[in-house]
Amino acid sequence: MESLSRGDISLPPGAWDSHVHIADEDKFPYHPLHPFRPKKADLDDLLAFQRSQGIAHSCLVAFSVYQNDNSSILDALRRLNGKGRAVVCIDPKTVTDAELRELHAAGARGIRLNFRTSSKRVDTETFERLLFEAAERIRPFGWVLQLYVSLDQIAQFAAVVPQLGVTVVIDHIGHPEPSKGPARLQEGYREFMELLKSGLVYTKLSGTYRFDDLPDLDSYVQEILATAPDRVVWASDWPHSGGVSRNPGGDRKKVQEYRKVDDRAWIARCKTWCRLAGGTEGNELVRKIWVDNPRSLWQYGEDSLLASDVEIRSVL
C-alpha cells in the first residue's frame, strides 16, 4: 500500500457519506426487544462528524435497535431540510401507502433488509419471497432495496435480481468472511461480480474494518472499483456500532460503546484504492464514488423531491 499523505484525506465538494446511523434513546426510545444498547449518537453528533471530514450530505440508514420505527430518521431528515437521504426499515405487509409517501417526502429513498446478523439463515425460497414482497411495495416510489448479506448469501438471490424491478444495493462490498480465505475463492463471489457488471446493483465501499484481515482485501476492493466504477458509493459506517456480535450475553441494559475507527485513515485508504484501480482516471473515480454515484443512487437534485412526488401520485 502506498504511503498516505495529508492531501489524501481531502474530499471533493458535495461529497456524500452513504451509510451512517443515528441513535438517541432519550428522544426516540429503542424497540423493547433491541438486541444491544448503543451509546447516544444523534444528528448533532453526525453533523459535527461530517464537518470534521468535509462531508456535505449523508444517507441515514435505519438502526436495528429501532426495528420498523422510523421516527428518528423522519425527524433528522426534516431537520436536514432536503440535504439528506435515508434508507428505512418497514414491514411490507403492514406499512401503508400514506406512511411510505410521508417517508418519501422527507427524503427516504430505500428500505433495508438484514439477512446477515440473524442467527437463523433463511432458505433460498424464503429469501426470494421476501425480496419480491419488499420490491412490490417500493417499486412505485422508485426506491432501492438495500441488503445486508454475507458474500455467500448473494448466490441465493442473484438469479432473481433482474426480475425485481428495483435497484439493489449490497452493503459493505458483500461482506466476505476472512475465515473462508480470499474473497475470489468464496461462494457468492462470481455472482456478485456478475451483478456488478450487469449494472443492476450498487455496492457500498464501507465497513471493511469488520473483515480487515481478509487475505486479498486490497485486490478485492480494486477489482470491484475497476469492474463497476459507476456502481460504487463510499460510506463511513459512522458511528461504528459493535452490534449484536459485541453483546454476546444479550444484556439490553448495558450501554455499548462504539468501535474506535480512524475515519481519516479510512478516507485515505479508499482514495489510494481509487488511484490504484483507476490509474490515470483515479481522480475521476474519487469523484464518482463520493459525489456522482450517490447523487444518482439517492436521487439527489434540486427538483428531486417535487418531481418524484408527482410521479408517485400518478402511479398510486
Low-pLDDT residue intervals, each spanning 5 or more residues: 1-6, 302-316
- Count of individual helical segments: 11
Main CATH class: Alpha Beta
Largest sheet: 8 strands, parallel
Order of helices and strands: EEHEHEHEHEHHEHEHEEHHH
In CATH, the architecture is Alpha-Beta Barrel
Structural class: alpha/beta
Report the portion of residues in β strands: 5-15%
Pfam families: Amidohydro_2
GO molecular function, one term: hydrolase activity
InterPro entries: Amidohydro-rel, Aro_Compnd_Degr_Hydrolases, Metal_Hydrolase
Protein name: Amidohydrolase-related domain-containing protein
Model description:
This protein has helices at residues 43-53, 71-80, 97-106, 124-138, 151-157, 161-164, 189-198, 217-227, 263-278, 282-297, 304-315; strands spanning 16-20, 37-38, 57-61, 85-88, 108-114, 144-148, 167-170, 201-205, 232-234, 255-256. It is an alpha/beta fold and 316 residues long. The radius of gyration is 19 Å and the shape is globular. Mean pLDDT is 89; it is low at 1-6 and 302-316. Helix 8 crosses helix 9 (263-278) and helix 9 (263-278) packs across helix 10 (282-297). The strands form two sheets. The protein has an eight-stranded parallel β-sheet with strand order 1-3-4-5-6-7-8-9. It has a two-stranded parallel ribbon with strand order 2-10. The protein is built from eleven helices and ten strands.
Quickly describe the structure:
With 316 residues, the protein is α/β, with parallel strands linked by helices. 39% of the residues lie in helices and 13% in strands. Helix 3 packs antiparallel against helix 11.
